[in-house]
């Protein structure tokens, strides 16, 4: 491609609404343009990089035996009603109406559609295992679209769905995708690592997210350097000790605590109740009913874990008026002693705890000497707390760390949730009818492309891995007169590299060398070949890997050298 024949609107400054470096660089390098919040146009070079990411994904999905399909983006609502997600996913669903006022949904993922296909097309155990995938535009009505392609309202996702005859079969399909994902992100040149992920409402233990470490990532990952344990903070557990039981006698005692409405305040004189001897009582509204959640005073509630326990993602903290109506007191004086009307979910760390202090459901009063099992009617014990850095690893006891990361992919065992609701059954070998066991597997394609930039850049611009760069080589002649020796050599190398299958761009603009160099660094081509009159007179051209040292080389050796460099720079997968 000749630079003058393509379209690369580079910018010296990023628009002020671009907050993170990758978003700025996508705009500055002329790869994308914003239409409106969360909605972007891919310009020619951005699209080339995106297509390279997609190609890697397709190659690895095909290698793993998955079959590419293309499902409708516009979907009727009935299958979403059947799956239950018309309600449970309502927050992110885009709804549109046709001329007959019939409602349609714009697909955020395609479990309902693929399960409908399976319900009619998979009849026998002989047709499984099978895994269908697609690369397509998805829509999500994100509350806070931000960071460019990272969290968009319209984006490209690769989604795959496996169908198996058994749980073991589903596990094998899952493992294949897990391995394929590792290869995909490695080949994109991304440092990446899988972490145990929250399985939310579906439950079970088979979900991993593929994470790219980045300060700007929206996820927090808990990890152990000693044994390799890694989990999203939404899922992570630790080996932190439970609350120590104490030798105390007697029963619950009420005492006055005028004006005391925080855990912190109760730790001070004259009360001096340590936070780890207090119970924090939180009120949420789930399914239109208040529920009580108890965690230790020095712990934080993890809402993702709560969703798993409540079996729904539709819940919210109760408002002050609702709390007062339910318990007859205001936040800061709440507790679960004697509460029988509402469900009480208690964090495992409080199991066996006694000599605890908690609100008395009377403003200005607390109870002390509370023994949870004796004094509180527990509906369910569950892991509800958030792990913090420095706690002992749940596997090996060494100290846990926390870092931020970008979720680029997600693999998930679905079980029979969708096949049950949408009737995807098959005739088993023993003649009985059974439900297909499903898995689903997503990759944020556009997010992955941006994650590459977020991870790989310097003060001058993007540093593309050769596998996903819009062009691998940029030839930069310093004079562009058609009859100049410089331009003739540039054209010759351009033709040779193209003939050898290299994606090469020839910067044939009549611009100052400084401008050309700056632009090629900004866009981030992995290898630049500089050809100038002076060096050519010395019998040399200059090869510069992006971010590496310049190398002067004889013109006739340049193409060979570049081919070798490309080979060496290509990201590997283990
Ligand atoms: N709003 C979005 N913008 C860009 N990519 C997204 C968005 N939402 C999800 N993705 C990508 O799609 C992949 C699969 O989506 P999924 O796991 O269903 O999303 P989530 O974890 O947000 O519920 C995610 O791993 C992520 O890479
Ligand atoms: Mg996810
Ligand atoms: Zn460990």
Description:
Strands 3, 7, 8, 9, 10, 11, 12, 21 and 24 form a nine-stranded mixed sheet that branches. The relative contact order is 0.14. With 574 residues, this protein is an alpha+beta fold. The longest helix has 21 residues, at 167-187. The protein is 28% helix and 27% strand. The protein binds adenosine-5'-diphosphate, magnesium ion and zinc ion. Adenosine-5'-diphosphate binds at residues 109, 140, 142, 151-152, 155, 157, 407-410, 442, 444, 446-447. Zinc ion binds next to loops.
Give the key terms.
binds adenosine-5'-diphosphate, binds zinc ion, 574 residues, 28% helix, nine-stranded mixed sheet, binds magnesium ion, alpha+beta
Question: How would you briefly describe this protein structure?
Answer:
The protein is built from 16 helices and 31 strands. With 574 residues, it is of the alpha+beta class. Strands 3, 7, 8, 9, 10, 11, 12, 21 and 24 form a nine-stranded mixed β-sheet that branches.
How would the blueprint of this fold be written?
Elements: H1 21-28, E1 32-36, E2 39-42, H2 44-63, E3 67-68, E4 74-76, H3 78-83, H4 85-88, E5 94-97, E6 103-106, H5 111-121, E7 130-139, E8 154-164, H6 167-187, E9 193-196, E10 207-213, E11 219-223, E12 230-232, E13 253-256, H7 263-267, E14 279-286, E15 289-296, H8 303-310, E16 315-317, H9 320-327, E17 343-347, E18 356-359, E19 365-370, H10 372-375, E20 380-382, E21 401-415, H11 417-422, E22 425-427, E23 433-435, E24 437-444, H12 445-455, E25 457-458, E26 461-462, E27 473-477, H13 485-499, E28 504-506, H14 513-523, E29 527-531, H15 533-537, E30 541-545, E31 551-553, H16 555-569
